[in-house]
C-alpha cells in the first residue's frame, strides 16, 4: 500500500458576479485550478510528485483573493492549464493501484468529488482517505481543534522549503509531516479522533449534512453574519436565495438558523466564526430539515410553557 498526499487550490467567483449567480448542474464550493500530490511509500519515505494546472470552465475569472493567496493568475491557467477531466485522468494514472489518500483538512476530497461529479467522472476510487490533521493532533498535543499546516510544521520542527498556498508545496510539507507519524495506528484510531474533533462540527461525514463551505476575509462579525444571511445564503439544491429566521447563539462563536427556499423548503444552517490574519473566517454547514441538528434548533427555539398560577384563596375562603 502507498499513501498519496493531496492538496488543491480552487477558485470561487466574486459575490454578485454573473459566475456567482450561475446555477451549475452540480453545486460546487469552488472550481479546482491546481492539483498537487506527493507519494509516500509504505515505509513512509517521500517519493515522486505530481502537479497539474487546470484551466477553469465555469469560474473563468480568478477571484482576486485567490490570486493574492496562491500567486496563480489567469494568464498562467490560459497558457499552461489543461481541462479538468484530462488532469484527473493523469492524476489517476500517476496514483496507481492500492493507495490511501491523505489531506490536511476536510475540504479537499469533498471539493474534488464535487468537481468530478460536475464533469460526470467516477470518484469511487478516492473514497479511501484520511485527514492527516486529525492523526497529527492525536499523536502530538491531543488538540481537538483544527491546526494550520504552518503551525504543525513549527511544532514538528519542519522547515518550509516550498511556497505556501501552492498545491504541490503544501502537499510536500504535509508529506514530510506524515513521515513522522505512525500512519497505520493513526488510521486505525481515526474514528475516535473524529468523534473528539470539535464535536463533529467539521467532521468528515455528518448525518443529514448536505453542504459544507468555508468563507474568508470578512472584516467584522457583523459583516460575516450579514453575508451569511444575504448574498451567501443560497439553497443547496437550486442555488437560489433563501430567507432566514433568527440566529440562535451557541458556544464557541457558533450560530444556527432555519433558512427557507421558496421551491425546496427549509434547511438548517450552522456557522462558526473564527479569526484569521486577514479578518473573520466562517465555516458553514447546511442540513436537511429532518436531521438531528435541525431538531436541536427546534428545541432551542421552543417557547417555554407558561405555568398557570394558582389563584390564591382569600382568608375568608380558607376559613369557610
TrEMBL record:
InterPro entries in the cross-refs: 3-5_Exoribonuclease (IPR051274), ERI-1_3'hExo-like (IPR047201), Ribonucl_H (IPR013520), RNaseH-like_sf (IPR012337), RNaseH_sf (IPR036397)
Keyword Nucleotidyltransferase on entry: no
SUPFAM superfamilies, A to Z: Ribonuclease H-like
GO molecular function per UniProt: 3'-5'-RNA exonuclease activity; nucleic acid binding
Sorted UniProt keywords: Exonuclease, Hydrolase, Nuclease
Segments crossing the lipid bilayer: none
Name of the featured protein: Exonuclease domain-containing protein
Source species of the chain: Candidatus Avoscillospira stercoripullorum
